[in-house]
Amino acid sequence: MTRDLLPLHFQLASALRSRILAGELPPGARLPTEHALTRRYSVSRLTVRRAKARLIAEGLLRSVQGSGTYLTPPERWRASPFAIETIDDLLAVGRDMAAAFKIHEFRMVPNSAAIAAKLANPADRLVLRMSGVRYAGGRPLSHAVYHLPADIGARLAPELLSEEALIPQLEKLAGIRVADARQFFHAGRADRTVARHLRVRPGAPVLVLDTLYFDARRRPVQSVLTRYREEFRYHARLRRME
Fold it and tell me: For the domain with range 83-236, which CATH number is right: 3.40.1410.10, 3.30.565.10, 3.40.50.720, 3.20.20.70?
């Protein structure tokens, strides 16, 4: 376990989850005791209990009073609601979350070297920048910053956008079709702006998703940097190409 980035109970839950999914800890087996886990991973009993509670909530473990904690069969595992296999699944995430997006910023800004590298538009002087917060159940779930090429952004206006997922609206209003997307994940910490919008303390752990969308001609049409609160769960199912 490391002492920075994600909380220790997140790290321990991830380590145990990986062992379970790899079959190292088979269904029906008894999970090592709290004492054994604290010694192996150099964490406190509280950290072990919080990690176990997270895996119990996911259906990977079950607690038997007076006996211990046991691994459950795979049919009892509960995948995250955000399971993504295709680009259509990715575009449906915002819709399926039933989460409203509130726009806080919508304006043309000077293009930067970092954004130009993503959007492959170094000749453009301006890009559209839009930022806002997505809410679920009245609580902030994520803070997102969008950048779009100027010619696409010029076809949009904040009054034309609803609180639904942006990509379907972008396709309709700008006359484009998203065909592909690339996502990069990493752990991060909330800066003061993000912390204020997500109602967390500055420096709180967040999951960062850096997404780049392409049209059918492989042109980058939208870059999105999204920071999620720590309790957000994201699941991707991968298939081997035959």
Answer: 3.40.1410.10
With beta carbons less than 8 A apart as the criterion, state whether 106 and 114 touch: no
- Report how far residue 194's alpha carbon sits from residue 225's, in angstroms, rounded to the nearest whole number: 12
Query: Rounded to whole angstroms, how far apart are CA atoms 168 and 12?
Result: 38
Give the span between the Cα atoms of 174 and 155, in whole angstroms.
6
**Cβ atoms of residues 20 and 60 within 8 Å:** yes
Q: Cα 150–168–213 angle (5° rounding)?
A: 55
143: which strand partners? 133, 227
Using only C-alpha atoms, the chain has a radius of gyration, in whole angstroms, of 21
Residue whose token pair is 């940097």: 225
What does the pLDDT profile of the chain (242 residues) look like in tens digits?
A: 554 445 678 778 878 887 887 788 888 999 999 999 999 999 999 999 999 998 898 888 999 988 899 999 887 776 444 444 455 555 555 554 445 788 899 999 999 999 999 999 999 999 999 999 988 767 888 999 999 999 999 888 888 887 777 788 888 888 888 888 998 989 999 999 999 999 999 999 999 999 999 998 999 999 999 999 887 765 555 555 55
